[in-house]
Specification:
The protein is α+β, with helices and mostly antiparallel strands and about 550 residues long. The chain folds into two domains: about 30-55 and about 70-310, no CATH class; about 390-435 and about 440-535, no CATH class. It has helices at about 5-15, 30, 155-165, 165-180, 250-255, 270-275, 280-290, 315-320, 365-375, 405-410, 450-460, 465-500, 505-535; strands spanning about 45, 55-65, 70-75, 75-80, 85-90, 105-110, 115, 120, 125, 130-135, 190-195, 200-205, 215-220, 225-230, 245, 305, 340-345, 350-355, 390-400, 410-415, 425. The protein has a five-stranded antiparallel sheet with strand order 10-11-12-13-15. A four-stranded antiparallel sheet has the order 2-19-20-21. It has a three-stranded antiparallel sheet with strand order 1-14-16, with helices on one face. It is globular, with a radius of gyration of 24 Å.
Amino acid sequence: MKPSLRFISAAVTALLMSLPFAAYSQPEKDIDPDGPGYAENCTSIMVGRLASTDGSVMTSHTCDGRYRTWLEVVPAMTFARDTVHPVYWGTMQTEEAWDMTNVTRKGEIPEVKSTYAYLNTAYPCLNEKQLAIGETTIYGKRELINQDGLFLIEELERIALQRCTTARQAIALIGSLAEQYGYGDMAECITIADPKEVWQLEIAGSGPGKPSAMWVAQRIPDDHIGIAANIPRISDVNFKDPDHFMTSADLRKKAKDLGYWDGKEPFKFYKVIGTGKPYAIREFFVLNTLAPELKLTMEMEELPFSVKPVKKLSVSDVMALFRETYEGTPYDMTKNLMITVRKKDEAGNEITESVKSPAMNNWMNADLRTLVNELKPGTIERQRTIAITGCSYSHVIQCRGWLPEEVGAVAWFSFDNPGQSPRIPIFSGTMELPESFRICGQHRYRDDAAIWSFREANRLSTVNWERGRKLIEPAVADMEQKALSELPALEERVKKLVSDGKNAEAKKAVTEYTDAFAHGAMNRWQEMKRELWQMFGRGF
């Protein structure tokens, strides 16, 4: 007689809790990022100004993977004539800002006279002029990689934020630098926003020979939303429409010379740099959810590059998309994980009820899925959810041109799983972050690293998600509502300070708000950690 699913699930879940980052041997489909139609890294959602409820332009990023979690605000700087700007490889795995372990100085380019302050995350994301960038790695043609190229995408993002004020300027600079000095990594997508518009830039190397780059940027229409999630999505390129497309020089010739375009069929960029169809579950879910009237299906050859949503999106709506695990939809991995429980009705009569197993959730790892499917084949069909436990950090950035630069852009930042963690507002004028933000928590457990303030409670809550979510989800909602209700007063205060010429005081005000909010959020999650240990202290 086989053991009950309920017993096995609870036992294995308890075992997994002892190894939260267990390096188990997993099925190839779960670890191979080059598998057909498979992608496991970052997600970016974009919102045009006419598609948002308040007129803000949004970009975003989930940094999915074991990348560094330390972040800092790098101040604006001035440089002497003939200064060079060093270009590094390897900064994504460092433990603190000063850490140069396994970091290589790849080369240098001429420095500019002055730079803007910017928020230095693993993938730098926001500057003081309300220029914002999201990112998602593209698993494309490996033969296009030329490691003699000078740049990785994070270095190009950094330089753009230091030197540019608009999305178009950033695209032009990134493109020209990549073409001149060479792009040296696998293909990438970055989503670049300013207070007026948001663009999706896809870039790859140009293969063997002299390092260069092939790239296309396409603008999201102002009343549309878009999504990029590890797959090239730019299809037909209109070379005669500079308002919606920007491209590298001689793009068509390079693609033809490499054998990726015959010169006759429409020029579809995803076919040039990619290896399969231009979407998977994440793209489909978001586009279909926001524009159901299009009746999109997973069987289509292509999905629209962007869609006009049936209703305008608030920043809260975008945050909710990043918490998505498809629960309650046909793609819910837990939909077949039902158990029978006995309880008494109001009259005292014993009744049975079918409920979802509290030991299961949509973040279960491959070992647990394998075990359940061994007990009953086909019980769980794996889906790549938007929110994952393997997220280092994430942000949703609003660019709001009607507000002073000190407070105009806000990066709603969270550590760890975006389905469980609160979002902390960091502004374009924020000058400094809490000390714990400047320490990475990926290399080892560190109680002085901010991410562990959230990760401990988050992981404990999934032991019994039915009970744990009753703490986590209201706390997330409370912190979100707190910030959204407090921001208008802060914005008015900053506007008054700026109008009075007190820009330094305005930056101090937003810096202090970020600091206080961050410490409040960390304290709340530490309190919940203690509650969860009290809840599960006698066993899982």
